[in-house]
Design brief:
Elements: E1 2-7, H1 11-24, E2 29-31, H2 33-38, E3 45-49, E4 64-67, H3 73-76, E5 87-88, H4 93-111, H5 114-122, E6 138-142, H6 146-157, E7 161-166, E8 179-183, H7 188-193, E9 197-200, H8 214-219, E10 224-228, H9 237-246, E11 249-254, E12 274-276, H10 286-302
Parallel strand pairs: 1-2, 1-3, 3-4, 4-5, 6-7, 6-9, 7-8, 9-10, 10-11, 11-12
Helix pairs in contact: 1-10, 4-6
This protein binds NADP nicotinamide-adenine-dinucleotide phosphate and glyoxylic acid.
Glyoxylic acid is lined by residues 69-71, 90, 284.
């Protein structure tokens, strides 16, 4: 199998990916973008990490696009993407576990006011706050897919009251015990009104872009916590800042931004009730992700079903 590896990597990342992918698939012939341009007819699989638009043009034998990213919105927006070639997202248990850990960390720190205590420490302020029980807090997870479901499951284990929101209906029996579920746009305002903490794990699509706006924040109980671990473009920044300044949102924990790296002049950096991460909620682990890639490439070679395909037309 001839495989093109391309994407947004720095030199160290590229070397790590090359090493792990070659170890996982020693039988493959790996081509970089330069080699692939010279041998466009040879490329059968493209393993990609947010490649620049146009990267996959002119590859007539391409049979699979395997993303190293879970979110494929940038890939799907590339107008030059070859039609009819299946696209697989990265679904890796190590990445899913990392996301659940980040969701737990944010929820626990909001529950127990640990972010506020960190601020108090910087200002040498000794101030004890009332301690809230996990089972007194209602947590809403937006998106009950690979990431959202894993986070919801762990939060239930810790005793939080957990609900999830998704696009399609789901049988109660298909969800782990203790997770409430609603679907569709009409259900959202009612869910928000009953949520002390909202964790966003939606994919970025035309329907979800800008969803976390003034109307969304106004629907929450005053002082709710907002955690965005999905994509920056889900949030209308000016609306979130206004909601924070009014106290409507008590604290925001943000991992993802419209522009990354977040520009130094952005008001989020200095906001006392914003906690930032530099898009590290769930990084792709080259060792485990290389095994996921290898399994799909071998399935392709064997004519077996491919895993984690993005359904045509669904957009995520
Ligand atoms: P996924 O398995 O595709 O799950 C997406 C979930 O969102 C599904 O439950 C889906 O509903 C729901 N959904 C989609 N559109 C919706 C809409 N319009 N209204 C309500 N629900 C909707 O995706 P995933 O693997 O969990 O990943 C989610 C996102 O996390 C990725 O797209 C990426 O942006 C982000 N991510 C971030 C990081 C990071 O480090 N910050 C790392 C990895 C991923 P159905 O179940 O009904 O289809
Ligand atoms: C990271 O944000 C991903 O989508 O994999």
């Amino acid at each position: 199998m001839n495989i093109l590896l391309c994407g947004e990597f720095d030199a160290a990342e590229l070397a790590a990916w090359q090493q792990c992918l070659r170890a996982a698939l020693p039988e493959a012939r790996w081509l970089d973008r330069g080699a692939a341009l010279a041998q466009a007819d040879a490329v059968e699989v493209a393993v990609v990490a947010n490649p620049p638009p146009g990267s996959l043009r002119g590859l007539p034998r391409l049979r699979l696009i395997q993303s190293l990213w879970a979110g494929v919105e940038r890939l799907l927006r590339d107008p030059t993407l070859p039609a009819g070639v299946p696209i697989a997202r990265m679904v890796d248990p190590a990445m899913t576990a990392a996301m659940a850990e980040t969701a737990l960390w944010a929820t626990l720190a909001l529950q127990r006011d640990f972010f506020d205590y960190a601020l108090d420490q910087r200002e040498r302020r000794w101030q004890q706050r009332p301690q809230r029980r996990a089972d007194s807090l209602r947590v809403l997870v937006l998106g009950l897919g690979e990431m959202g479901l894993a986070a919801a499951r762990r939060l239930v284990q810790l005793g939080f009251q957990v609900s999830g929101w998704s696009l399609h209906p789901r049988a109660a029996a298909a969800l782990p015990a203790g997770i409430g579920h609603r679907h569709g746009a009409a259900a959202l305002p009612g869910l928000l009104a009953q949520s002390d903490i909202v964790i966003n794990l939606l994919p970025l699509t035309p329907a979800t872009e800008g969803l976390l706006d003034a109307t969304f924040f106004a629907a929450l109980p005053r002082g709710a916590g907002v955690v965005n671990l999905a994509r920056g473009a889900h949030v209308v920044d000016a609306d979130l800042l206004a909601a924070l300044d009014r106290g409507q949102v008590g604290r925001a924990v943000l991992d993802v931004f419209h522009q990354e790296p977040l520009p130094p002049e952005h008001p989020y950096w200095q906001h006392p009730r914003v906690t930032l991460l530099p898009h590290v909620a769930a990084q792709t682990d080259p060792h485990s992700a290389a095994q996921v890639v290898a399994a799909n490439v071998r399935a392709l070679a064997a004519g077996a079903p491919l895993a984690h395909l993005v359904p045509v037309g669904r957009g995520y």
